[in-house]
Amino acid sequence: MTTSTSLRASGSVTMGGDQLGAAIHCPVLTTAMPCSTLHHPCSTSQGPRLYSKRDHCNKTVEIYEDVSSPPVTPENFGRPLTCTYRFRAFRGSPKDWILRIRFKKFKVGTLINGTTCHKGYMQIVDGNAKTDVSNRKEPGLFCGEIEQPQTFISETNFVKIVFHADNFTDQTYFSFDSRAEQQFEVYLRYGQHPELYPNRRGEVVAGSYCERVFRDCRLQTCYVQSAAYPGVYPRNLHCRYHLNTRLPYIKLYIENEEFNIDGQRCENIMTCPMRPITSGSENCPYDYIRIYDGKDESASVIGTFCGMGKFPYSIIGTSQDLFVEFVSSPAGPLLNTGFHFNVGNWPGHVEAPGSKIGNCDWLLTAESLKRSGDTEGIFLSVAHWYPPHTSCTYLMQGFPGQVVRLYFPSFRINRIESPIVPWTGDCGESLTLYDAARPDDAKIIKTFCDTFSRPMEKHDFVSTGNAMFVRFESKTGSYSGSSLYYWAHYDFFNNTRFGEPVSGTACDEVIASWKQRAGRLRSPLNTLVYKQAPPGEDVHCLYRFVTDKRIYARVIVTILSVNFKEHPYTPVSCQNCYEDRADKLIIWEPFPTGRAANLSLGMTTTPLPLHLAVQRSIGSCLCAKHANTVTRSRPYRVVSSGESLNLQLIVDNAHAAASYFKNPSPLFEARYEFVHGPLCGPAVLAAASDGEIVYPHLEALGYTEPPKRIQCIWDLEIEEKRDIWLHFDSIKFASRHCDDGNIQIYLPGRVEPYLSVCGENVSLARELPILSAGELGFESLDDPLVMEKEKTRSIRIVFIGSASPARAAFKIAWTGLYHLPKNSDGTLMTSRLTDSGSYAPDGHNCDFICPGEEALCIPARLICNGVVNCPNVTSGERRYWTAEEKRAREAYSEDSLRRLGYLDALTGELGKLHDEAPELCTGAHMAGSGDWMAPVLGAALAIAISVCALGAAWRLCCRKRSPDEESLDY
User: Does the UniProt entry include the keyword Protein transport (predicted)?
Assistant: First the structure.
């Protein structure tokens, strides 16, 4: 029914004679609102005024005027009644005035099914054609009954109220008053300092009543409110709010405000209970707000809400935009006061350096992290809303050979505070870490649940491969982010090994000769090992170099640099590298060989552990003080005597993480090489009175393929107080070039070779000087790195062949020579030779005196053995023998030969015979001619061996010799 029709139907209704003017309260007016402008009933320009009966209906209402429904009279009882009230315009007043209309009593019509007003209604028209906003086209209807006064606060300075009753009786009544206020006086609507934020309530879309746009919202700069807030909102609304912030995640929340959308929907005063806040379209059929995760209605719906009470949670979007839709039914009670939301953004947003797949699945790769220029990547717990049964995943994928570390600087586990769907069981939300590139229950590292887990902050979770998969799951969903709040950091570490990793250890490796003949080595590339040692334990990394004992292999480890840090806050010394608590590198042989090892450790197959090596100071130890001593230009070289060698890095736990975690500089650098081999034969030759080195080792020719390059290292151990005479029985090189074959002889403690023989200077091998006991002593050994307490003197012989090494061949023989006793002045100690009739130093080893003036002698078993063991040496510095010395020497020699059975066959001068002289050996053979079986059997065995070795030696003996080939046979 229209207003005009209602007026015609009412006819000339008589009003009661009550004087409304007497009830008007006249406050003191401000200068901004003069009485003459507002036409206040107290205005002195108009004087006192009495209101006639017709003033109860269809009138222009003055500000501060009380208005009530017309009295029931016989003329209007039971008849239709329509009353219209317009508030007098603010002539010349600014546009920031609004009207506050208080309904003290209200009972008009009946609300049917929550959507229809039966037998009466009230309309509130806010604005007109001249105002910026207006709902005059579809103002909606109020009906029902109120118990307490309700207030409507207009959006404009023009309001019209229309009351209509189909059957006017004493059960239809209303009463209201009004007043005008400026915007800054309505604090709940405009907030503090509205002049600073003219668009705090958004920019109104032209032609609409309540569609608003909010841009660049920050805390307290955007108020999203229902129309007429904080008063009763109009009916038949469809308000649209476009919300935007500069940064994600946009957050919609209530601070100390009540939420009242359709909280009460009354058909009568007795059936008007409060409805708690609920969600879902099925629970909010009349008035509701609906929130979308995006710019408009096409975005995902976060939720639909209605009810009355404290809005229990914030709503956080996934981007910078939210769209809010507010709908009120065409008809409803005069009760609900709407909503007021603030807009901001969740401050914890961090963009992960990876690619997003879908809504919340991430691929975080080492490549993308490298491009970002950061050393660590970051991802956060889900901070925005998500629906029930959400699964968010993070795949951290490294380069081949890398491992992934994940740790949580901050981790909190809360109860699920804002679920979309309630959950009463355990683990409504969970976070699971997998040691794999995909979910695999067999490879779960850890699972966190909201109901029973404790957070683990600053704990390193490390994968075994180059991928780690993390999955967050929620059965409940959430309006405002996960109950598992975490700040996750991840990074990648190069876990490449130089050998075979040892299971159950952080950084131990085995480097085997059958895997790789040579390579480089350094401290662990994965610096996580420096912060993962158990509390109170130092970091230990053991590198074991192993090969097969049967192939006579050796290991060379060359330390190129040592870069241990000094620690100013915890100073440690490195005076005793073994004993001091300093970062160090220890090298030792777990299976020592040779005379010294046999004497001190005994022959055993049990590896020598580090603590025994430290106790006995066997091996080498490097620490910070050697940083300048060991460099690439002056490397430190260790050659094993056997088939294995240990190198162990030890870092003090007190500062390992602070000094070396994520430190790109290596603590040490080294290279290794497995040398020697089957063609070289035994590597360590124990001390003996004589022996020989034969290359190639004939036993290996039948089953080994000659390598393209070979390096043989022989250690010839030396007995105390004995000279050594080295001599080549035969020698042949593949060519005249020294790069193709080279024999070097090193004396104990010397860095430079004593002698180097190759195809160019093969003649140097014809005459080799005797190496005296003084030259072979340890007096010249000045190596601070070597800590061995029990050393064995040894001569090192090295052969390097690079071109057809099997084509080279040589035989090096040696003899240990003794000295006749001498006085301190160098003269012969004749008394020792004549007093007892025989000199027997060191167990009868000086049986035959060699020719020359050096007074050298050999044991009896080297006489006439087919090898010349006595050099004829005459030193230019040796003085002439005195007559007494000559007599003593001749007497000793004669007595020794007589005792050995050689004297009777000799005819020449004894002092000029060497040990293989025909005069000496012929007589000895004749004396022993009765024992003929041994020589015959020996000859037969030699023939058999020669036949068997003929095929194997064919390649060496019958190969065509190149023009560059040089040989020396004698």
Answer: no
